[in-house]
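Hey, quick one: can you model this chain's 3D structure?
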Amino acid sequence: MPALPADGVPHPLLGAPVFLQRMADGTLKQINPFTGTQVWTVPGRARRPGARVGGPATDPADARPLTPADRTGACAFCSGRYLETPPERARLVAGPQGERMIRHLRADHVFDTVAEFRRIPNLFEIVSFDYWRLNYGHRLPDSLRETMLDYLSTEAGRRHLDDLVRRRGGEPGAHVSEADRLDHATGFFGSGHDVIVARRHYAQDATVTSALASSGTLTPDEHDSYLRFTIDAQRDLYAANRYVRYVAVFQNWLRPAGASFDHLHKQLVAIDERGVQAELEIQRARANPNVYNEFAVDYAAYHNLTVAENEHAVAFAGFGHRYPTLEIFSRSERPQPWLHSRAELRGMSDLIHALHAAAGPDVPCNEEWHHKPPDADVPMPWRVLIKWRLSTIAGFEGGTKIYLNTIDPPTLRDMVTQELFRLRANGSIADGIRIGPECACVPNSLRYNPAVRRTARPDAAFPPLYGPTSGNASS
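Sure thing. Here's the predicted structure for all 475 residues.
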C-alpha cells in the first residue's frame, strides 16, 4: 500500500507501508503488520466500556459482604483449598528475609506456609504427558521421578493423588489402583501445562464479593514477583523436555476472556511447534530485521499512539487487532525473558502492571507473551499484548475476515493515558514511567537488532559539538 500523508490522499512516490488509514466518514482501517489482519473501527459502533475504563466484573446486585471463609476458599485456587489442585511444582513465599522459593512440597506440608504464588500442573491440560511419551518417546527425568515417588511415599500424598484421579472423571469413592495412581502422578509431575496462581481471590481492601484481585490490584513489587516466578517456570519447561519448541504464556482474566475461575492466574503450555504467530513473525523478521522497530514501536510513535515508557520497555495502543490491544515491548538486547537482567524484567513488569491497573479489574482481557523461539535464527524482542475482550466476533467478521474493533487506537491511547496520570498521582503505579506526551519516542529504541544496537541516540549524554561562543558574529 502507498504511504498516506496527513490529508489521507495516497502519495504517488513513497512506498512505505500504511497500517492506519482514516476514511472521510471517520472509519479507521487498520492492518496488523505481523499477521495481515484487517480491522475497521466504524463511527457510531464505538462504545466506552464503563465510567472510567471498565464496568463491574460482577453484577453489584449479586455482591455480598466478604467473610473470612471467602478470602481463603472462594475457589479451588484459594489458599484454603491447596489439595484440590495437582501437586505443587513450586511456591513463592514472603518472609522477613525477603521472598524465597520452595519446590515440590509434599502433601503433608502444603499448609505449613502461605504461598504468594504457586506453580501447579493444570488438572485438565491441553497437551498431556502421554502426548510427549507416545509421539516422541519422552520419559520423566530421573530427578522428577524421585520427587514423584517421594510424594507418593506418604499416606497424605497417596490420598491426594486418589482424590485428583476421581476429580478427573473417576467415580466418587471408587478404589484407585496403584498402577492408575502412578500413571496419573507421572502426568502431573511431567506436566508441560502449568498454572501460576496468585494468593488473593479478592483485592486486599475488598469488603464485598464483587471486588476481585486482578493484575492491576497487585502492588508493583508483587507484580514483579509474579512475572519473575512465571519466567522461572517458562525456562524450566524448556529445560525439562528437549522436544519442546515453544512455551506459550498467557493469562485469561474473567470468564468472558476464557477463565475457568475469576482468580488471578497465568498459564504456560509447552508445544512441539513454534505456532502460527511465531512462524509469521520469523518470516517478516528475516525479510526486515528491524521490523519491530519500524512497523511497531516507531510507527506507533509517528502516529502518536505511544502510551507509556521507561528505560527498559515501551507501550503503545496497538493496531490491526480484533480487540482493543495494548502492546508492551522489551528494549533489551536479549531475545528471551529468562535472559533479561533483573532491571529489564522490572521495567517490563512495571509497564504491564500499570496498563492492567489502568484498565481496572472489571475489564475481561487476555495477556499474551511473545518471545523468540529457541530454535529461531533471527533476533526477535520479547513483547506482551493485553487484549480487552469487549466484543464478540459475529457474522460479518466470519464472512469477510474484516474485524470490527469498537475502540480505535487513538481512543484507546486517550483512555489509558488519562487513567495512568490519575494512578500516578495516587501512587498506585511504579515510579519512572513516562506517560503519553512525556515519552521521548526515540527511533530504534528496541535493541534486539544488532544493526541499530550501537547507533548513537540523540537523548544520550554526549559532549557538546561546539564550545561556548562570545562576541559578535563576523561576516
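One thing worth noting: Residues 1-14, 47-57, 469-475 have pLDDT under 50 and may be disordered.
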